[in-house]
């Protein structure tokens, strides 16, 4: 009996070793490819699988879940020759591991280079201002281009997002100066329009008042006082030489030259 056990023991050990060596467990969400003597044999699905030891080998095990590929900021030139940097994030998924493994050397590098080429081409067709408002269309153009190009690789690009579009520092400074100048221009126009409007209102108010001459005198005096207050509030040293008599006579002359806009009473004769 013992001699039989001695004979069977090596066989049992070989069977156990063969079973252990041939059993391969593939995790859920993954797929593996098997080659036999260097040639593609079959695909292993999630769960317990068996291969022939020393003849079969698992060359790759990869997930078929969605992946994320980040594209570092890359230099690009817009249609109006403005240099900028843009980065993106790509969501992709392996649908056919056999194509992805045997059709291209490195699938991630291939996708990254394709994204860079397509992104630069898309930005090159737009002017700088359009790149900010057309980000959604850029994403869609990238997605359409990548879907067609990666189909032969057994890969599906599910989503493309351009995250940041950043012009060069010199361009940003020039844009800030341009915006500041435009803001000042609009402010000056609004101020001028307000001044014209206020003059029109003042003119209409004076025409409707019997004491228009006295009102005009008051306004001139008020402007004179305001100007003196602003002058005195300045921190810079100043010396102002002023002849009060000449100033009074000048103001009086301006007032005397102002026509009397007091409406005539229909019952009285017109003032000469």
Structural description of this entry:
The protein is an alpha+beta fold. It contains 8 helices and 8 strands. The strands form 3 sheets. The protein has a 3-stranded antiparallel beta sheet. It has a 3-stranded antiparallel beta sheet with strand order 6-7-8. Strand 2 and strand 3 form a beta hairpin. The longest helix has 39 residues, at 169-207. 12% of the residues are buried.
**What is the strand arrangement across the widest sheet?**
3-2-5
Bin the strand percentage.
15-25%
Structural class: alpha+beta
Helix content: 40-55%
Ends apart, CA distance between termini: 154 Å
Largest beta-sheet characterization: 3 strands, antiparallel
User: What do the pLDDT scores average to?
Assistant: 74
Low-confidence stretches: 258-272
Total strands: 8
The H-and-E topology, N to C, reads as HEEEEEEEHHHHEHHH
Radius of gyration: 43 Å
Q: How many H/I helices?
A: 8
Q: What global shape is seen?
A: rod-shaped
Key features?
272 residues, 8 strands, rod-shaped, 3-stranded antiparallel beta sheet, alpha+beta
Write the layout of secondary structure elements.
Blueprint: H1 2-22, E1 23-26, E2 30-36, E3 39-44, E4 47-50, E5 56-63, E6 67-77, E7 83-94, H2 97-102, H3 107-124, H4 128-133, H5 135-150, E8 155-167, H6 169-207, H7 212-233, H8 244-257
Antiparallel strand pairs: 1-4, 2-3, 2-5, 6-7, 7-8
Summarize the structure.
With 272 residues, the protein is of the alpha+beta class. The protein is built from 8 helices and 8 strands; from the N terminus they run H-E-E-E-E-E-E-E-H-H-H-H-E-H-H-H.
